[in-house]
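Translate sequence into structure tokens.
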Amino acid sequence: MYRINAVLKSPLMVGGKTLNSNYRESRDYIPGSVLRAAYAKALVQRCSCSQTHYWLEYKSQSQCMECEFQTVCRRFSEIKFPALYPLGGIPYPATARRKKYRDKDELGIYDVLKSRLSDQGKAKGEADWERLEGIHKEGLPIKLIHSPITRTAIDYHRNAAQAGALYTQNAISEKYLDNSQELADVVFSGTMELSPEEAEALEHIKVLHIGADITRGFGVCHMSCREIPEDSTPKQIKTRIQKFQEGMDGTKSYVVLDLLTDAYLGLEDIWKDAKPQAGISDKQILDSQGQTISQADISDKQMLNFLEKKIGLSTEKYKLCKAYKFQEILSGFDTSKTTEQEMRRQSHLVVKAGAVFAYQVLTESNDIEELLQQERKGIGEQTQHGFGKVRICDSFHTQYDARKGDSHNG
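Result follows.
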């Protein structure tokens, strides 16, 4: 296992939310697909063979045998590129809550998952809490600085600015305020599995240009790659499960899958095949191409059965009993194509990072090897681009268990 660090040296704009026709905000993390594209472009620029549209392809020519990047180039499509989160953070789980009104020095963070799985139901004081979103490190929210930059669109036929075509990009600044309220570098990081030869090759790429508008100086990152111990072992997984089980009803045992990155679980399929209930009209949402995705009313049982099949844990050993999730429409471009129509990818519904899937264990003990493999391979499609990364029983649920009260939030 290796840790990839990207130290941001200029504003970063990563395909984010278009809040209206002329305002776009960057995501606070670097998806694995964006990291792969940046490495592919860097390798193509160093390649002595002919490559088309920055689509990296191993050519098996004589000069390839002497190239320092041949080990990476040969297996590039098979390497899993991780999502890079800022400052060592991960997304808050969908079960995280925070006090709306709290003292200045009070953290006031709670996790309601264990209370939901127990007979307690809602935790005491929950009416005064709000759902937490974003990225955290050890419970504390990570706050990056966003810099709005306004530009004008260009009419390339007239070589002049387009009238009335101003637009604003809310990019991530290369600095943030640390705990001492001093400006420090923003560092994005993630872990990936590499051979020593592949890691050595990537070490030769010291600078990457990541995200959008790199021709304008955006997304300059200083890269590093270093070996780290295995970040999840069978012993660690077993310990996290045991800690999660503490204080729960002894007659039932649970395992939790925490989604650390967005996941493609084919949610469109459940609505395509479903029929709306009598007297209830379809709920309609439009994708980025103006096409309609129909959402008929789906029962909780139908959704759990669908997700259970998509996630893929053994149904003889585990039963999905709770799913806390949010979804959004995600689309993108395939720059290996030649026309804009071909480049535009079909839009899909994705499950957002932070989703929590709670399973009841049907056997006397957990299959730790199966759970370990689930962590390593991820869930859903496009896991090679960092999508669908999961962690078994993240410690957040135990550390901030809402049933403990205020003692752990001081």
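Note: Residues 276-293, 406-410 have pLDDT under 50 and may be disordered.
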